[in-house]
Amino acid sequence: MVRYRMKNKTLFLSLVLALGFVSRAFSAEELKYMAYNFYADPIMSETSGKYNSFIIDFKADKTPLATYWSLLNFNFYAKSPKTQEAYKGLRGVHGYAGLQNSNKKVGILSFWEAKYQKDGETLILNADRIYPEGSNRFGHEGDGTNCIYPYEWESGQWYRMLMHTWEDIEKGTTFAGTWFLDIKSGEWKLFAYFDTHLYDSFLVYGVSQFMENFYGGDVKTNCNVERDIYLKNLYVFDREKKDWVSLHTVQLSYGDGGGKEEHQKKFGAHTFGATEDHFWGLTGGVVEDQAAYEQAAVKKQIYTIKQPEKPELGSLKIAKLSLDGKKKNLSWDLDEKSTPQLAYRVRAVNAKGKVVFEKAGTRPEVRSLALPAMKSDAFKVTLTVVDVFGNKAETEYQTDLYKAATKNVAKN
């Protein structure tokens, strides 16, 4: 059920103004300005405020240049004793993740820098990018590290973004990464992940979204151009409840982003609402009388949609496990529609059942492993994969010598 908290007369006038904004062109002065921001703030009252994961489905039909669709503004817990011991006074790490059109379609995962105290000096903590390799620093609206990388998403098509946090078994610190699911093809893609350098950390507080026109100046990028956003299937994996919680009630709003400079001024139309199964927002487009439009516009509203109580997650499937006999290089592939890998464990035993090699990792991109030199080529390898949702799949590879040796033992 969609819940509207507004008077019908106000809603009608707002819609009339919104649908009637094509009656004139912007002036040269107005063309300097950007479109308003759209905001979505899920109501978190049914959660503990502590989350390991966040999921959201997204679509945009109108995707002009200079638009950023932030699908998650996040905060990380920084109050664990071990974190505070390492970084005294650290108040937390935060950032955002989503999709953008800036000459090309890209994904974004950004962490702002955090400050802490050591020996009376203020120091900086930055998250470090692990995958893809490289280190990007950014400034302007604060400083930090990010990954802005091509992701060829298409207008008019639904995508799912997942952010997941985990403890890396090698470093012992909290890692955080994002994945995108092309819902049409059913294929997941690991986008990026970072080492936050925090200990025993996870997502906390609200998990909000926004759509932003981040520069203007001409009719292809500014308030003259319509841009939209559609959102549904919002969930968090609650750390204390140890289960998924549906975020089916969201407050939608618009705003100017708080910019005080002349070039930051926002202009044009802005509407939002909900259907039975999704939330939507639209900004940009000419209005006849901006002052009258603003006076009649609804600034914020709470809506509730219908969505499954738990997300549909898919299944983990290992497609292939193989061994390069000469190089002793073990490699594996997941099914193209499998849920994403988070962790792996490789265990090799000889024909007598003795463990001769074992290694585990929490690196989502790893699909191969070099085995050490062994006394005998008669061995069996068991691969266990754990996906980002905690599901396990297992398969094994037996060398010909292992098969022969165990066959002879069975006969005797």
Report the portion of residues in β strands: over 45%
Count of the separate structural domains: 2
CATH topology (fold) name of the largest domain: Jelly Rolls
The CATH class of the largest domain is Mainly Beta
What integer is the average pLDDT? 90
How would you sum up this structure, described in words?
It is a single chain. The chain folds into 2 domains: 8-304, Jelly Rolls (Sandwich), CATH 2.60.120; 318-411, Immunoglobulins (Immunoglobulin-like). Strands 3, 9, 12, 13, 14, 15, 17, 18, 21 and 22 form a 10-stranded antiparallel β-sheet that branches. A 9-stranded antiparallel β-sheet has the order 10-11-6-5-4-16-2-19-23, with no helix packed on it. The chain has a 4-stranded antiparallel β-sheet with strand order 27-26-29-30. It has helices spanning 8-19, 81-86, 290-296, 400-411, and strands at residues 34-35, 37-42, 50-59, 67-76, 93-101, 105-112, 114-118, 121-125, 128-131, 136-138, 144-150, 159-167, 174-182, 187-195, 203-204, 208-213, 227-238, 243-246, 249-255, 266-267, 270-274, 279-283, 300-304, 318-324, 329-334, 341-350, 355-361, 368-370, 379-387, 392-398. The protein is mostly beta strands and 412 residues long. A hairpin with a 5-residue loop joins strand 10 and strand 11. It starts with 7 loop residues before the first helix and ends with a helix.
Quick tags:
single chain; 412 residues; mainly beta; Jelly Rolls; 10-stranded antiparallel β-sheet; 9-stranded antiparallel β-sheet; 4 helices
